Amino acid sequence: MSVQIDHLHSESGSRRFAPTAEFSAQAEASPELYSDAQADRLGFWADQSRELLHWHKPFTKILDWTNPPFAKWFDDGELNVAYNCLDRHVEAGNGDRVALHFEGEPGDSRDITYAELTAEVKRATNVLIKLGVKSGDRVAIYLPMIPEAVISMLAVARLGAVHSVIFGGFSAESLRSRIDDANAVLVITADGGFRKGRISALKPAVDAALQSGDSSVQNVLVVKRTGQDVEWNDRDLWWHDELASVEAEHVAEAFPAENPLFILYTSGTTGAPKGILHTSGGYLTQGAFTHKNVFDLKPETDVYWCTADVGWITGHTYVVYGPLANGATQVLFEGTPDSPHPGRWWEIIEKYKVSILYTAPTAIRTFMKLGRQIPQKFDLTSLRVLGSVGEPINPEAWMWYREVIGGNITPVVDTWWQTETGAIMVSAIPGLTETKPGAAQVAIPGIAIDVLDDDGTHVGHGNGGLLVVTEPWPAMLRGIWGDPERFKETYWDKFEGTTGAKDGPLYFAGDGARLDDDGDIWLLGRVDDVMNVSGHRLSTAEIESSLVAHPLTAEAAVVGASDEVTGQAVVAFVVIKFSQAETASHEDISAVLRAHVSQQIGAIARPREIFIVDELPKTRSGKIMRRLLRDVAEGREVGDTSTLADTSVMQIITQKMK
Ligand code: WT7
């Protein structure tokens, strides 16, 4: 097991922060959540679901686990996800509440109330109907962080169709493979977006993706955001023209609880990205429950801000579905933290009096490097809960977050979950949990987590092992789009037939974890060939195959090397084809290959460094020993090389690095 974040071991959990009496007294969550869930786990989720959501047709069944690992939650119930996020708040008299404080990158801003958002989504739904989109159809969404991204997702959901949001940073090729895998009938995009003071185009990537003409896409709906020139094709339609051309009214229809809601692609250890499938009733239940309790949400008074892009799962569950189901007021920000000045985030918090902030450790570490004098110029006293997600948060960053951003008083919750889990699984609950810097700590009420060794045996306090989910949960993925076998193999086969503690299917998350002496959970990073760069999941295999696809490359190995700011960084070791090796300098080759990966996958996958080597270290059976390459990439003494086929390879590589 290659546990990479070793320094977490040194934190013993001795620093603790008990909730203040004041906070506990007003907290949404009560200790009964744990005892109720303990007493009757399924009954607990049924109660939460009834309380938090509107069911057009109430469910009578809670969980069907007769055909594991294929779960059905609330199967005979019917609901409309968009109705739950929109109309019902308006009907309850909260139509004037701001749903989105939109803050554009160039400084334009716009408040959108629940009534306005509902009206926009109704029109957008009518546009989808006009374009022939039906329930069950897939719609690809490739947009910047603008209100139309949220509106599009909700319009697709309202129709019982399935969205596949593709992060705007992904390339035309990545877009095409995702469109093809899901057979999307429509793409919703924009002319472009704003990034760091410049215009960045989106539409050309869609044009390039659809260039060959043989795709399932019938139309491309284009939001005008930047006003830049765009090429126009027969299939293209302007968003504003189409919205103006349809009726304003649309009545939401109820769909079965297990109706697919979205597909979201994420990287695995091998092959192409997997389309993680989520459905409606269970997903929305756990999304709303965790959003309310983990962030102690008071919809009437809080201003919530999750900095994630809607292209990732965090944006799905904690920008769109959780907060809107709960009727929250939130900030939607198009830009980056440091543009036009390094205090932009803190300025936004001051402007909107943000009270709940949810962000990633990589951002916190970047701000730490810039220094506390920047946030200290702004009034951050509105903040009362801080959340972290995406990767393990080192105790030092946790402390800085609490002290500098949280005024030494706010609770900090470190939330562990995944694209696959759909919603938060492990986290402290403010007002209830005594927090420990660096630990995600405890399973959410109603969620069953364990740490097991390879044999499936519980490791016991003070020991490390593999994180597993031992019981099905409402927001769990329902499968990998089009590939039920891969779904089983990837997540459910690991502990099959082991002699450990529990019968029945165990979900293997791919993370290492340790239980401290109190039984609290400390996440230790991935145990497979998945990297985590700035909280984004990247596959070593996918980047390797991109590198190898270039005519210069003979062989490539990619590792995630630890990085002070981004958590991990992509480092590649490349063997150049003999015929090419003499013609260009290493710098040129490395620049060409970095650009190639960026173009094939997206800028987030671009290697930080590429080392040109003569050979890769391999075992006698031909397996690349990434562990040794990681030692080199992190500037460490190279570990045990005795299982290498040729033990001199590492000597040559390390000599070259010097
Ligand atoms: C992987 C999932 C969950 C939304 C963002 C990432 C890592 C996530 C934590 C945390 C330690 C974390 C895990 C996980 N991860 N949150 N609080 N502490 N590790 O979603 O792209 O599906 O990645 O991110 O390694 O498996 P994702």
Concise account of the structure shown:
It catalyses: acetate + ATP + CoA = acetyl-CoA + AMP + diphosphate. This protein has 22 helices and 30 strands.
Q: What do we call the CATH homologous superfamily of the domain at 31-336?
A: ANL, N-terminal domain
Shape: globular
- CATH fold description of the domain at 31-336: Rossmann fold
Strand order of the largest sheet: 12-11-8-6-7-14-15-23
Which architecture of the domain at 31-336 per CATH? 3-Layer(aba) Sandwich
Number of helices: 22
Radius of gyration: 24 Å
Please describe the biggest sheet, giving its number of strands, its sense, and whether it closes into a barrel.
8 strands, mixed
User: What do the pLDDT scores average to?
Assistant: 94
Q: How many angstroms separate the termini?
A: 29 Å
Give the oligomeric state of the chains in this entry, treating copies of one chain as homo and distinct chains as hetero. Answer: single chain
Low-confidence runs: 1-11
